[in-house]
Amino acid sequence: MPRPVEPEDLTAYAFLSEPSLSPDGTLVALSVHRMLLDPDEYEGNLWLVPWAGGEPRQLTTAGKDSAPKFSPDGKRILFTSRRELGKDDKGNGLYVIPVDGGEARLLLRRKEGIEGASWSPDGGRILFLSNVGADDEDVRTVRRAHFWFNDKGFIYNLRKHAFVLDLATGEAKPLTQGEFDVAQAAWSHDGKHVAYLAATEDLRPFLNDAFVLDVATGTSAQLTKHDMEIDALAWSPDDRQLVLLGDDLPRGFASHLHLWRIDATGGKPERMDALDRNLSNSLNCDVRMGGVNAEPKWVGDRIHFLVADGGAVHLYALGVGERKAELVVGGERSVEAFQVSGGKIAFTAMERAQLPELFTFDGQVRVRTAFNGTARKDLDLLTPERFTFRASDGATVEGWILKPKKEGKLPTVLYVHGGPKTAFGYSYMHEFQVFAAKGYAVLYTNPRGSDGYTEAFADIRKHYGERDYQDLMEAADHAVAHYPFVDGSRLAVAGGSYGGFMTNWVIGQTTRFKAAVTDRSIANWWTFWATSDIGPHFTKDQVGVDPWDDEETTMAKSPIRYIPRVTTPLLIVHSFEDLRCWHVEALQMYTSLKHHGKEVEMFLVPKDNHELSRGGKPKHRVARLKAYLRWFETHLG
Predict the structure, then answer these.
(1) What pTM does this model have?
(2) How many CB atoms neighbour CB 258 within 10 A?
(3) Residue 346 contacts residue 28 (beta carbons within 8 Å)
């Protein structure tokens, strides 16, 4: 008989990487990661899955392997690994292993790290990204504006560049050099050029430009005009053009990503799609390990790409000639990552907010793995109910409610996602399953500011705490009115990042909630501006001002201003190495509330960052969930 989900059941799940499809379409390679509590780490191994069905075959057992890529001849698999490295050792290695099995061979190890590795079309070279420069180990002298970044630490002495490894000589040479950072690099189909994206301006690091490098001469040509936010690129089959996944910021950071075509020799990018949806996957989920990739794939005369549609993420294809986008894989699912070869597609996905598996599509969707089959069998996983309601201004707002198996009136947690331009939907949330297993209904919605809808719906710039706040309160009203089990007298509010900001904001505006948990939050836009790794440009875009240009707006939009109004007991969860929302935000909320005699507690986590709930140290992730449960039990009963 299935048992209720516990915080420690994170160890029961398989986290799936991006799949790699063999050139002949007969095999799919992926890495499968699992969380281990006793060594307090994650293990990862490579697996091969037959396209036509059958038992997956485990290819490696080292426990430190990830990111497999088939060679052009389909006989070898390239992957990154931390084999022979200890917990405190920096970097990783690049390995290759025969598809038929055998010993993996080390190609290169770099303490600066290796990522984004890909085979050259002839199979003789490897393109990858790695840092250059050395971090100061003790005293630091900082002169660079963009000096640290979440999950990376201090970066002021580091730059990320593209390298090429010659497999015949074993020599790795840099392809790019200079005071800029390469975000992605891709071989042309003839192997003569490398297209890459680079951020060249520290004060506006969100602007990436597209470049094409001649491998023989080492010269680069800039294609774009430093006026776009570009997340990914891919070559056309004839190498004459590139497709860019990006936007020209019509609504700042609320803008949707779209497909743009540009000649490989330069020119003006031309938008290809006409969708008013974001071409990405920003669904919240806590069972991923680097397995999301929205890079478009240009195969033949069609470009495949992801589309956020409400609480789902679907796979679409656009005909290059007619520019008509067609749904390929839809339904109540979150497509996480995909690969295309001929008429075959391999993709990872979560269906109806359940655990991920590998799927294939050749006209029909088929599930090919059961990596999470044991968890589905052993755990009593609940399925959320979708609902919509009409907000007071007439807009339709989508949400879900996860009901425990208990009967009667139930305490209910209103959970707010981060972003704000992310979304809840058909991706799995272990956290919500844990809460529901303990008897708490979980109410989660996509208020104004969320992804998955129109660009206008996502745009709450300069209006934080207004229509978004109203949508959330009206969602709570709707739940109380339409679900008899929701106990309106025992409501809690919780959320992380922007959701933490909103939790702080909510308890300063209303007294209806009996408990609150704010996680990796924002308390004060002035300090966020000055300390966050994205502070200056994100604050200016979202709040609309720099602090000293308009102190009144800066503080009026800061939850800390409303501390004297707070009556809701607050638990503050924060990681010391969170460089997105630095822990100064937690300290301000805590000190201010204590000073005003309010009930508040801090749960501070060392050696973890903004990603604690999704990829933090296993023991910390479990401890965090138990802290939430203790707070709810204390204040909701």
Answers:
(1) 0.97
(2) 21
(3) yes
For residues 293 and 18, the answer to whether their CB atoms sit within 8 Å is: yes
Q: What is the DSSP string of 74-134?
A: SSEEEEEE-TT--TT---EEEEEEETT----EEEEEETT--EEEEE-TTSSEEEEEEEES-
Contacts of 589 (CB under 8 A, 6+ apart): 504, 518, 521, 523, 559, 560, 563, 570, 572, 600
Integer Cα distance of 146 and 200 in angstroms: 12
Of 479, 329, 317, the C-alpha closest to 389 is 479
- Collapsing DSSP states into helix, strand and coil, what is residue 280? coil
3-state secondary structure 181-217: EEEEEEECCCCCEEEEEEECCCCCCCCEEEEEEECCC
499-552 residue pLDDT tens: 999 999 999 999 999 999 999 999 999 999 999 999 999 999 999 999 999 999
Q: Compute the distance between CA of residue 306 and CA of residue 320 in angstroms, rounded to an integer.
A: 16
* Phi, psi torsion values for 626, nearest 5 degrees: -70, -35
Q: Which residues, 6+ apart, have CB-to-CB distance to 351 below 8 Å?
A: 331, 332, 333, 426
| 205-237: pLDDT as tens digits | 999 999 999 999 999 999 999 999 999 999 999
Phi, psi torsion values for 395, nearest 5 degrees: -75, 150
Token pair 């490696």: residue: 60
Residue (of 157, 95, 94) closest to 129 by Cα position: 94
